[in-house]
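As a warm-up, study this chain.
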Amino acid sequence: MADETTMPEDKKADKKAAKQAKREEKARKREEKLRAKLEKSGASPEEIQKAIESGEDYEEEGGSRLAVFFVTLVIIAIWLAILALLVKMDVGGFGSTVLQPLLKDVPYVNRILPEVDDPQGQGVEENTEYPYSTLEDAVARIKELEVELQNAKKANKDSKSQNKELQEQSAQLEQYKAREAAFEQLKQKFDEEVVFSKQAPDINEYKTFYESIDPANAETIYKQVLEQQQADQQLEEYVSMYSSMKAKQAAAIFDTMKDDLKLVAKILQAMDADASSSILGAMNAETAAKLTKIMNPSESK
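Now compare it with the structure written out below.
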């Protein structure tokens, strides 16, 4: 019987001892962790021992984080107060020159701005770096500057256009000078080879002829001669180009030139008869008929 009563008591004792050992092991690990933290933070052995004896639990980081947060807020508040004090005292003129135009219309915030002597209520003086008393004045001035910029751009554009016109007129004048010089050379050559040659007529006849010619009319005749020479040269190039083509290719191109059939007729008339007839035979019948009438106006009548 005695053995049976002692057995439950032994079990209770064992459980109690196991719990006690578990608590001691947990306390030992907590103490080791706390010691490691304090040593890492640079605490002295006396502070470490005192913290261990007081039973402080540094694993609870919530309170530490909250304390750090409040300390940070306090530091920020102190710096803001220092900054506000510096602005209020206008150290270096920062408050009156930089912050005054920006924050003077902001409620509550403008209380930290320094006092500015302005007995007549005229705002910032005109000679300061910021000549505008309100944001509306600055915006209005910006718009005025934008209009001035647009006007300047327009004037610059007009000037460029005028310069371009002057350049074109100058180029035309240079062409006129070149043609006049060519005319003078041709006239000199004519005088040397015809007027004053050994086979030339009597000088009095030439004198009478030149006196009868109007200078403006002579210039017009010369220009017409040059234009005719250029047209003849261009026509020769067309004839050479279309003669080298096949009849079907040339006919296809001529069929598209319905608005300039006179030029087509000139080209065909200047070409070889076999080539022009082959091209006409390959063209559209209606277009070919019109060209035939242009080339032979007497037959069309």
